[in-house]
Structure formats: C-alpha cells, structure tokens
Design brief:
Layout (H helix, E strand, L loop, with lengths): L18 E11 L5 E11 L7 H6 L3 H13 L3 E2 L2 E2 L4
Antiparallel strand pairs: 1-2, 3-4
C-alpha cells in the first residue's frame, strides 16, 4: 500500500482523485481436472487518509472483505508469497 503523500512507481506525485486499480489473479484446478484462472479487477479514486477518511469508509465493502478473508483462511493457496501454513 502506498501513502497518498508519496509518489507513484514513475516518480510522479499522486493527485487526489486519481484512479488506482487492484487486480487479483486466482488459479485453481476444477473438479473436472482442468486448470482455471480467474481475474478480478477493481478501480477506486485515490484518497488521502489524513483528510478524506469518510470517502475511504464509504468505499469499504465489508461483505467482499469478509468473503475474501474467509477464502484466504480456508483455501489451499499462496498469496503474495504467503502460504496457508505460514498464517
């Protein structure tokens, strides 16, 4: 996670209201034996934690987070180099 007062990967300042994307790529083996890949992409406006906390709170999807956390804890997976055994 990058703080709003820092720069992006190209060294440019991040403007308030700029759009940022997060992409999750999930690979799994289906019951029929075939490997499948799912890609989920979301886009949000950039917000400064110090001045725009209400905007951040309004954009927080609790149901999706609970689902993701449950999936993360229950599945056989590796996310960001962390396997279930490491949790």
């Amino acid at each position: 996670m990058v703080d709003a007062k820092h720069t992006n990967l190209h060294g440019s300042a991040i403007a308030q209201g700029a759009r940022g994307m997060v992409q999750f790529v999930t690979q799994y083996q289906h019951a029929d034996g075939r490997k499948r890949i799912r890609v989920t992409t979301t886009c949000r406006s950039w917000a400064d934690m110090a001045t725009q906390q209400p905007n951040i709170a309004y954009g927080f999807d609790q149901v999706s987070f609970c689902f993701f956390l449950t999936w993360l804890c229950e599945g056989s997976f590796t996310v960001f180099g962390v396997s279930k055994a490491d949790l």
